[in-house]
């Protein structure tokens, strides 16, 4: 890889809407950018593309806001061609090291993830997105039960249907597009089961009405569901999934005003797929390892998207869940701020006035959705004692209840030490919120030094805190990190 022109250097972690918007804004103002992303193609989960080898004739059919994606994609291609952006795809960042003279981003490369690449930078933007929250229920570990986002990823990235007859369930704004996507691709969608109901929205009419485009989007999805004859069961929940070798049916029930299952309302629906999700949580591992403060579940940022660690910015879902349009606004603000600050200037507020306005309104809108789409208050009552909660370590609900009740564990970490829940491969990402809910304590992401599993050989060969001369180099010095 040829060395880029000299000048300030920014490392962007994550090539979703926020990372792309920031990279393009900074590169257009003379900043050298290295975009480090774990996927084979840019776009993140929102703009996930089918592999070229699949020969999708109309990939845009799987997306709305396709024109926005084309603008981002073409902008990235142009900046890469001019040498302003280096795009390191299939690079999985496991640690960001802060040093007196900047930062080093450490990433594992390629499918084997056995070789680490180091990227030196003057500033870092964390645009690491979010991950799905799924709460357990009897039968949730059966084959055929997938996360709502997982079903969407299969559809967008693999042109694959998870099954023939699906039930989409849980809570949150992701469920409607997932149900529409499955139905449009030819799956039978037997029901959309949403725990929120009309009355949950009633007290928020003014904030919601201030976002006609968002309401129109929801109305379009509702019309599509009606066209495909998908039954919407609002204020309902999945009680259990049934089947021997894979899911064959689900039992759903209505919720009462307190969020408890209403006895006698249970109905069984035949299906071979259950796509389930209970909202999203921000990915904060890298930020926490750097010492960035959190604000609730997300990374705390100021008006310019700066964290409280000098030289580190954050944008998109890592600062709080709010969808692609909010991520684009935050990314643009961060990119313009970084370009100015790296050149010892204060950013001109006028340069991102529209983005700030969009950010303010959308944050208000998504704060309302967060309240409306909270999981049912008494969801833990549906979790049987023998229901596996931590799948990695096969820990049942009874062990977690015993740790909290009889052994007095008052936080997720103590429950983990007593039961091994959260010690497995996913490091509690799947089960953390469920363990906290069952133990009756607050869910806090567990701070860990590295954002993903790292081979010991890589750790042994990583020379931390040394001075790097170029924008990228590899820990085993055999080749340069290049895209």
From TrEMBL:
In terms of superkingdom, the source organism counts as Bacteria
InterPro entries referenced in this protein's UniProt entry, alphabetically: BFD-like_2Fe2S-bd_dom, BFD-like_2Fe2S-bd_dom_sf, FAD/NAD-bd_sf, FAD/NAD-binding_dom, Metab_Enz_Cyan_OpOx_G3PDH, Opine_Oxase_asu/HCN_bsu
Q: Which SUPFAM superfamilies match?
A: FAD/NAD(P)-binding domain (SSF51905)
Enumerate the residue ranges of region (Disordered). 461-483
Cite a single Pfam family from the UniProt record.
Pyr_redox_2
List the keywords (alphabetical): Oxidoreductase
What residue stretches are annotated with the BFD-like [2Fe-2S]-binding domain?
A: 388-437
FAD/NAD(P)-binding domain span = 9-321
Coiled-coil features, chain-numbered ranges: none
Q: What one GO molecular function would you report for this record?
A: oxidoreductase activity
Checking PANTHER family in the record gives: ANAEROBIC GLYCEROL-3-PHOSPHATE DEHYDROGENASE SUBUNIT B (PTHR42949)
Q: What is this protein called?
A: Oxidase
Question: Source species, please?
Answer: Streptomyces flaveus
From which lineage does this chain's organism come?
Bacteria, Bacillati, Actinomycetota, Actinomycetes, Kitasatosporales
């Amino acid at each position: 890889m040829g060395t880029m022109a000299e000048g300030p250097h920014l490392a962007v972690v994550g090539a979703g809407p926020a990372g792309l918007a920031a990279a393009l804004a900074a590169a257009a103002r003379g900043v050298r950018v290295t975009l480090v992303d774990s996927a084979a193609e840019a776009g993140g989960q929102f703009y996930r593309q089918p592999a070229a080898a699949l020969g999708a004739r109309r990939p845009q059919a799987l997306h709305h806001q396709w024109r926005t994606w084309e603008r981002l994609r073409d902008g990235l291609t142009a900046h890469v061609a001019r040498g302003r952006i280096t795009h390191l795809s299939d690079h999985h960042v496991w640690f960001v090291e802060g040093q007196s003279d900047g930062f080093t981003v450490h990433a594992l490369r390629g499918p084997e993830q056995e070789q680490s690449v180091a990227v030196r930078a003057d500033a870092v933007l964390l645009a690491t997105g979010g991950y799905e929250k799924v709460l357990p229920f009897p039968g949730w570990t059966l084959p055929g039960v997938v996360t709502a986002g997982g079903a969407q990823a299969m559809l967008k990235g693999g042109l694959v249907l998870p099954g023939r007859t699906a039930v989409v369930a849980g809570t949150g704004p992701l469920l409607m597009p997932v149900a529409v996507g499955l139905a449009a691709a030819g799956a039978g969608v037997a029901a959309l089961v949403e725990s929120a109901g009309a009355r949950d929205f009633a007290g928020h009419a003014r904030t919601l009405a201030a976002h006609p485009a968002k309401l129109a989007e929801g109305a379009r999805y509702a019309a599509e569901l009606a066209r495909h004859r998908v039954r919407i069961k609002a204020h309902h929940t999945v009680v259990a999934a049934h089947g021997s070798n894979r899911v064959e049916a689900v039992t759903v029930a209505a919720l009462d005003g307190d969020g408890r299952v209403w006895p006698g309302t249970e109905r069984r629906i035949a299906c071979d797929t259950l796509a389930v999700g209970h909202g999203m949580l921000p990915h904060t591992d890298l930020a926490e390892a750097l010492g960035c403060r959190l604000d609730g579940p997300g990374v705390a940022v100021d008006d310019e998207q700066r964290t409280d660690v000098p030289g580190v910015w954050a944008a998109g879902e890592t600062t709080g869940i709010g969808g692609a349009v909010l991520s684009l606004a935050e990314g643009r603000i961060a990119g313009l701020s970084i370009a100015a600050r790296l050149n010892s200037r204060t950013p001109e507020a006028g340069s991102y006035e529209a983005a700030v306005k969009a950010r303010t309104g959308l944050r208000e809108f998504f704060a309302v959705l967060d309240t409306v789409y909270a999981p049912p208050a008494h969801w833990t009552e549906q979790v049987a004692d023998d229901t596996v909660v931590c799948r990695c370590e096969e820990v049942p609900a009874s062990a977690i209840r015993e740790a909290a009740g009889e052994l007095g564990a008052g936080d997720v970490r103590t429950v983990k030490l007593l039961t091994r829940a959260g010690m497995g491969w996913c490091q509690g990402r799947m089960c953390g919120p469920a363990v906290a809910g069952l133990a009756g304590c607050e869910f806090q992401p567990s701070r860990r030094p590295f954002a993903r599993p790292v081979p010991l050989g890589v750790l042994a060969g990583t020379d931390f805190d040394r001075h790097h001369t170029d924008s990228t180099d590899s820990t085993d010095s055999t080749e340069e990190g290049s895209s």
